[in-house]
Predict the 3D structure of the following.
Amino acid sequence: MIKAIFFCAFDIKEGPKVLHQVPADSIVPSSTSTQIPLFHFPSLPKYIIPRPEFCSRLITFCTPTHRILSYPVCLPSPSYPRNAYTFSIALVLDVSTPFASYATVTLKLASLLRTLEEQSRFLSRDTSAPNSGKIYALCEILLEDLNNYCESMIPIDDSNTLNIKLFPTYPPPPPLCPYHVPLSTVRLDSLTDPNWDLTMLGVLPHIDGINSVKQISLLADADYKLVRKAIEHLLYYGCLLLLDIFSFSAIYAPTAELASFVEDMEMQAECARYVALPVESHVEGSKRHVIDGSQLVELYLSLKQGQNVKVFYIEHAEKMEKIDVRRFITFGVIKGFLYRVHKYAIATSQTSRRKRDPKTRVKQKKASSIAVETGTDEVDSDLAELERFLDGTHCFDEICTELMINEQELMVRLKAIGDVQIICR
């Protein structure tokens, strides 16, 4: 939110002087005002109206409580006193306010005022009293419109109009890994346009909450780096959430946030609508089964450490008969009352990595669909490639995605390596 806007110019007698300020007395109070200014202006003129070398560039500086964005402009001409006219338009924000979008506003506003001055001496010929006239009205309307509507359109004269829009600043997206699974939070097909980037158009059909980023790049037949950029773009604007790869061998456990789900009847109803299977699966648009909220609570409470989804599903097969197990898990992860327990592999010693048992080689060779005739060189290269992930910092999802294998085959390769410990956390 903008706290104040002020217009400052260099006076040949007084030096840098605030001519217009909105709200009134917020920067330089009048002699009769009792209002406390936002900051001590007499200590800052050299930053508002600097030397000509520092003009025509954005200047931002902070006081203990506020941030000032200014864009000083120096227009040399023999028609001005001292052969130059120097002015600056400045915005005042809270020191903690993200200012990237406001910097653009400052630049555009200064550019417009410079053009008006070069065309018609709009600024230097303004003889209105301080806090009155066209420049003051411009600052006043701009402050009100940007704070209330985040955009403004102000006609200046017959040939000039100020159009400014504040675009929201989002935090940077979370780190994106090849094994992450993007899930859309909006209808992406309703946002698409034929003029969109070709990679983006190829990626969107494969974002279904099941495919990982690496799988999407393969399905879209596009370079992984380009696919990653496209997905990061959607993440930045809040169109996607990131999930883990769903598998029945995965382990999920509840968090303390499950208490809010137990007490929130509306969330239980939302969950029931999301996870219920259709009555007739082969009929599109078929009604869905009715799921009781208490039943969902009981099922979520049954998830625990050391129990994978497969065991959980078998134990509660009767209650899960009308529930989509993938959606059941996904809903808990999205709402934050379920977390994934990842598996990590650690080789206990350097020597154990080098051991090779001929029997385990044959087993690993069969699991990898490698012909026996090719010998053990290819098997050894696969195991050597796997060894770089055995430092306890790479989860099974990452390893399987990088090596393009499933968890069952990964376990066979780990047994072939030798003494490897599996840690769940």
User: Anything to note?
Assistant: The radius of gyration is 32 Å. The chain has 16 helices and 14 strands. The first strand starts at residue 2 and ends at 11. Residues 100-120 form the longest helix (21 residues).
